[in-house]
Structure formats: structure tokens, C-alpha cells
Amino acid sequence: MTGTFAILIIAASLFINYALAKVDNQAILWVSFGVILLVAAGCGALLVKFRKYGVGLFAAWGGVMLGFLVTTTFAIANVYAYYAVLIAAAIFMFFVAIKIEKTVVIILTAFIGSYALIRGISLYAGHYPSETELHNELESGVVTWKTMPKAYYAYLAGILILTIVSTIF
After folding, report:
1. What does the alpha-carbon distance between residue 134 and residue 162 come to, in Å, rounded to a whole number?
2. Is this structure's pTM higher than 0.70?
3. What CA–CA distance (Å, rounded) separates 114 from 35?
4. Residue 1 above 60 pLDDT?
5. 20 and 28 in contact (C-beta within 8 Å)?
6. Same structural domain for residues 12 and 64?
7. I need a labelling partner for 127 at 20 to 30 A (CA). Which of 45, 56, 133, 165 fits?
8. Among 14, 115, 17, 127, which residue's Cα sits nearest to residue 63?
């Protein structure tokens, strides 16, 4: 069920935001959503049947999120290095998860939850830059290592501390 929900959210948001951004017909949007729901349910069923690889895909997504934080933290502006870090983190976490499944699930659940909580707090507290916008600003040279928003590092420390505490308890 969790795999179905995760795939549904990811696929629906990507498809609707990018592929159907300019479609005004509501029927097309609902049919597309229904197709995505069916595909997500099928993927979820496969993830249940092949649990080990489902956990690997979950870990790969956690690796991508970790890659976002790494590229933003170290102000990586080169587009090739940016995507190389994201892909390497996803592949690394996929294979680690296949080897030590339960531990990875605990750590990644703690990390994803910590990230979501801190990101939610930042929407009210402010000063947490969007990773995508920050990457674009780094790429264009608007933001450099010296001009990087310092509040970002406080939020990053919050994610790290909350991840450690959540993993332990």
C-alpha cells in the first residue's frame, strides 16, 4: 500500500505538473489521474511481491533526497556534477538497501520524516531556500559559497539531529 501511494504521488505530481500543465480540459486530467492510479496500484502490487527491490526503490528515492541536500550544502553549481551526485546517491542507497534492508528502512524513514518536518517548519519560519531554486541560482552565479543563506545550515543541522534521534527511538 505504501509503495502504491508513493508511486501515485510521485507520478501524478510529475505528470500533471509537466505533461499536463497547459491542459484545460478537466476530463483529460481525471482520466490521466485514473491511469496513474492504476499504474501505481500495479507497481505497488509488484513491490509487495518483490519486497526487497521495493525497499531498494524506496532507498533510491531517499538517496535522491540526500543528493539534493549534499549538492545544496556544498554549493555544487555544475549541472553534470549535480546530476552525477543525485544518480550516484540513488544507486548507492538502492544497493545498500538490498543488503541491509531493515536498517535502511529505519534510517530512511527517519530521514524522510525529519526532512518533511523541518521543511514544513521552514514554510512558516522562512529562510529555507528551495533546493531547486538554489541550484538554479548557483548555476547562474547569483549565489556563491560565500553568499549562501546561512539559515540553511541551521535547518540542515535540525534535519541531521532529528534523523539521529528518530533512528535511535
Report:
1. 23
2. no
3. 32
4. no
5. yes
6. no
7. 165
8. 115
